[in-house]
Structures are given as C-alpha cells and as structure tokens.
Specification:
By secondary structure, the protein is mainly beta. It folds into two domains: 141 residues, Trefoil (Trefoil (Acidic Fibroblast Growth Factor, subunit A)); 138 residues, Trefoil (Trefoil (Acidic Fibroblast Growth Factor, subunit A)). Helices cover 7% and strands 35% of the residues. The strands form nine sheets. Strands 9-8-5-4-1-12 form a six-stranded antiparallel sheet, with no helix packed on it. The longest helix has 22 residues. It starts with a helix and ends with a strand. The N terminus is likely disordered.
C-alpha cells in the first residue's frame, strides 16, 4: 500500500512538469530571426509598416521585408519574446482582454509582461503553434477571414485548426547540403517523368516543364556551384539557366522558365537532400521547385515555385549523365 501511495505521488509530481515541458515546446531552441508563414502562404506582418504601439499584427502577401521578420528570443522559462525587426516592438495580446477569445494581437514596446511572451509548440510536418504564455490561448487567424489580406490576428482556444498553425522560415539561414552537386544530371520527378524545356526551344522565357524521358540534351541540366554554395542550373541544349519570374519572385505560383544567365538570386538554387531525393530551393524567394498536385502527371505542364510543404511533388532525384 505504501508503494502504491509513493507511486501516485510521483506521478502527480511528474505530470505537471511534463505538461510544462510540452507547453514550452520541448527542448528545441527557436532563437533566431524568422518569417512566420501561415499554411495559406501569407506571412505575419505589421499594418502599414508602422512602428507605433498598438499597431495591428496582420497577415499579408510575403514581400521579404523587415516588417515581416520576427526575432525570437528565448527566456528563462522557455517562452519567447517575438520582436518585429522593423519596429523593434513585441508581439503582444491586449492586456485588458488577456483571458478572452478574440483578444487582438498587436505590437507594443517591451514591458516584460507575460502577455508579450509566447511558447512555441511543434505540431509536426514543419509547423508550430504559437501559444501566449499568459492566457494559454493560441495565435489565430479567424477561419472566416483566413485568406483576407490585412486582417488582424487574435488569440483563441486551441481547436487544432490549420488557421492556428505556422511555419517558421529562418531569415538568411545557411543551407547545408552535405555534398557538392556540381555536374550534369537528368532531374527526375518521383512519378518517373523528367524536367525538360518546351519544344526544344532555346529562347528566353521558354517554360520549364515535365515530360517523358527521352535522354536528349534538352533534358540534361548542368549544376555549377557558386561561391555562396548555391547553384546555377543550366540546360545543356539551350545553354540558358533555370529562372523564376523576377517580377513575381515572392509569390507562390511564380512560373519557372529558362533565361540568359544574369547572375541574380532568382537564377540560383539551393540543393537540400531528403534521403535519396532533393528539394530544389530558389535562393531569391526561399520557395521550392514544385509541380502542382493537380497536374502532377500532366505531361508538358510548367513548373512553378511554392512554399516548401515537403510534398512528393516537390522532390526530385538527380541522375548523373554519363
């Protein structure tokens, strides 16, 4: 009987600590500067680039600006202060409504209170929940306005929704590839098709597409490593490089084409290994080469770039050309 009582007391003491550890996001340290991306591809921003107290924290199309960059600073209790890089003000929940669902999220000068601290909780698949340390509620974009640009964030009870999940994309994070990919390859999709250029055309602006494998030079790509560790990817037939439309560089869906090399970031790519496959990430946008799921088996369909969702439609096998 005494052993049973000791066991029960031990469990009662341990469980709160386990809960606290889960609340604090486990052992990973998220300290660093990030863009905070919603699942819809938009980014967490501040309204109208304003640097004043009380300015709304909103969702907006990604621009890559400092107004969409947030500095995460870990505190002694494993919570984080989340500071906007442009304004140097913290992500803050209205203190007068701290326990209410729907309390608005704004920026405010650092006053070292718990309504300005947040726990980061990993939910798998590269996404996290951002939980206010004072209220225990989550950063939330209302379902009814989930795709409304400029709409303000609020806090809400954890309902397990995708509107409460975010991807932290580190700003200027080094990409470790583990090897030098310099060489000439065919780039194979998981469906067995290969990356090609449309109609053997050597002009600027010609679409980069998927096609049945023929073994032709139009389906061969020369990877040349640059001094920053990125690669230019040049079609052997046309001698033009793989390029993302520069006018849409920060957009999901920006088309991938070939173009004369002009030594710009939209023509450079990071190669990130995923087992036997790789992700091909544009250096200018930090988005990845993607064949849309709805057209994944459509021959002749053009590639675009998209937020990295770790999908099989974003993974490729590099097959060396002999």
């Amino acid at each position: 009987m005494k052993k049973l009582i000791v066991l029960v007391l031990a469990v009662c003491c341990i469980m709160p600590n386990l809960f606290a550890q889960q609340q604090a996001g486990g052992t990973r340290d998220y300290s660093g500067t990030y863009e905070i991306h919603l699942r819809n591809g938009n980014a967490v921003d501040i309204q109208q680039l304003a640097v004043n107290n009380g300015i709304a924290v909103i969702q907006q199309n990604r621009t890559g600006g400092q107004n969409q960059q947030w500095r995460f600073e870990r505190q002694s209790d494993n919570s984080y202060k989340i500071t906007n890089v442009l304004s140097n003000r913290l992500m803050d929940v209205q203190n007068s409504r701290i326990n209410a669902n729907g309390a608005l999220v704004q920026q405010w000068q650092d006053n070292n209170t718990m309504n300005q601290r947040w726990y980061i909780i990993d939910v798998g698949g590269g996404f996290v929940k951002i939980q206010n340390a004072s209220s225990g509620k989550l950063l939330d974009m209302s379902r009814s306005n989930y795709n409304t640009l400029g709409h303000q964030f609020h806090q809400w009870d954890d309902l397990g929704g995708e509107n409460q999940q975010f991807r932290l994309v580190q700003v200027n994070a080094p990409v470790v590839t583990g090897r030098d990919w310099s060489g000439t390859y065919e780039i194979h999709l998981r469906n067995g098709n290969v990356i090609d250029i449309r109609n053997f055309n050597s002009d600027n602006g010609v679409a980069v597409i998927q096609q049945n494998r023929t073994g032709g030079r139009n389906q061969q790509w020369r990877f040349e490593r640059q001094s920053d560790g990125t690669y230019t990817i040049t079609n052997v037939h046309s001698n033009r490089v793989m390029d993302v439309q520069n006018s849409r560089i920060n957009e999901n869906g920006a088309l991938v084409q070939q173009w004369t090399s002009n030594n710009t970031a939209n023509q450079r790519w990071n190669i990130v290994q995923r087992g036997d496959f790789v992700i091909i990430q544009n250096s200018g946008s930090r988005r990845v080469l993607d064949m849309s799921r709805s057209n994944y088996n459509t021959l002749g369909h053009q590639f675009h770039q998209w937020e990295n969702l770790e999908g099989e439609n974003q993974q490729f096998r590099l097959v060396p050309v002999n």
